[in-house]
Amino acid sequence: MPLLAYLDISFNYLYGSIPLSLGNLQNMTDLNNHLSGVIPDIWSNFKYLYYLDISNNNFSGKIPSSIGSLSYIKFLFLGGSKLSGQVPSSLQNCTSMDTLDMGDNRLSGNLPSWVGEAMPSLLIFRVRNNSFTGHIPGQLCRLSNLHILDLSHNKLTGIIPTCLGNLSRLKIELELDSERYEGSLQVATKGRIMEYTETTLYPVNSLDLSSNNLSGGIPQELTTLSELGTLILSRNQLTGKIPEVIGNLKDLETLDLSHNKLVGEIPASMVSLTFLSHLNLSFNNLSGKIPTNNQFQTFDDPSIYGGSLALCGTPLATKCSASGNGNGETLSGWDKDDEDVKDRLEKLWFYLTVTLGFFMRFWGVCGSLMIEKR
User: Fold this and answer.
1) Residue 363 three-state SS
2) Which of 55, 153, 202, 247 is most buried, judged by most C-beta within 10 A?
3) For residue 93, what pLDDT is reported?
């Protein structure tokens, strides 16, 4: 079938390798399958292939370097297999790429920095659940159209690049072009993994850097991504305070900062996140009073704040002090000695006041009689 252009053999029980004769289909534009075995290095002959989905199968071995010869490729789905090794540098020849999904494999090495230089139109970059190491390359910040970035569940180190705040697609509301999306993609949001198709994928704005070894603080520059809907930074080694202006993320629906080393109070600006429906701040070192306005009235699950012993207020059992200074001190947290000292001071002040009042009244009367003898 030399003129065959579209082949979909997905959701079957086929086994074995992709037949080498498939390389003769030079007019192929769309290939969708769920096979197993090793991916053959036959892709140099596919001159017009723009969609390749060989995800969710049992492929093993490396990503064939000949995939880099697919100059028209826009959608490449390689996720959900057992692919190993490093990402071939030949993929930087795929300059028309819109979606690159290599998640849920066994890929290793550094994240390819050339993605940010060679694929300027990239909308989705997903490498979730691999073994990538090293720092997050700053070149990714050049992808002005990027709106789904999933680097979670790897072994990345270093700080979160401040330049991620330059991702303009997440800063400005743009006109959506649904024709630039094909296939389906799994995205973590609202505490679970959800699958989106081309008809529901384009409005999703997500930044997921969870389950790595990232350190340093949360860059304040991230709070300029006003169109961001999901921000997941959980299970890292992040320190410092939650940015005070995090309330600028007006479209945020999911915020997960759990399992880090964050300190300080929950910023008051977070009550401005009126679209927020999933929040997780557990297992940090946060302190002070939990906000109670707007969306925080719906966050009545104590596990949202679990592990931060210095937090107080609803929905926790620990009540805040009457002073309302937000420092997290509570009557139940004081030592017995501190209470005794407080009681003694109050009694001493009472006796001093009574004694002083008595002498003032006494001498006010007797003193005047002594001066005016008549």
Assistant:
1) helix
2) 55
3) 94
Residue 4 clears pLDDT 80, i.e. is over it = yes
Residue 6 confidence (pLDDT):
84
Residue 187 belongs to what H/E stretch?
strand 184-189
Is beta strand 184-189 parallel, antiparallel or unpaired with respect to 192-197?
antiparallel
Whole-angstrom Cα distance, residue 5 to residue 30? 7
Structure tokens at 335: 């030592």
**Architecture (CATH level 2) of domain 98-333:** Alpha-Beta Horseshoe (3.80)
329: confidence class by pLDDT, cuts 50, 70, 90? very low
| SS3 at position 314 | coil
Provide the token pair at 235. 């299970």
Q: How far apart are CA 86 and CA 44, in angstroms?
A: 20
Asked if pLDDT for residue 100 goes beyond 90, the answer is yes
- Closest by CA position to 59, among listed 86, 39, 43, 30: 39
d(CA 171, CA 162): 14
Q: What is the pLDDT of residues 152-206, one digit of tens each?
A: 999 999 999 999 999 999 998 877 777 789 888 999 999 999 999 888 998 999 9
The answer to whether 110 touches 87, Cβ cutoff 8 Å, is no
**Residues paired with residue 185 on neighbouring β-strands, in sequence order:** 196
CA atoms within 13 A on the CB side of 212: 29
Rounded to an integer, what distance in angstroms lies between the CA atom of residue 258 and that of residue 268?
Answer: 18
Reduced to 3 states, what is the DSSP secondary structure of residue 76?
strand
Is the per-residue pLDDT at 338 higher than 80? Answer: no
Mean pLDDT value of segment 223-251: 96
For the chain, domain boundaries = 98-333, 340-374
DSSP state of 305: G
Query: What are 131's strand-pairing partners?
Result: 108
> Within its chain, how far is the Cα of 41 from the centroid?
36
Closest C-alpha among 136, 134, 190 to residue 167: 136
Residues 6+ apart with CB under 8 A from 308: 281, 282, 283, 284, 285, 286, 287
Q: Is 37 left (phi over 0), alpha (psi -120 to 50) or beta?
A: left
If pLDDT is split at 50, 70 and 90, which confidence band does 11 have? confident
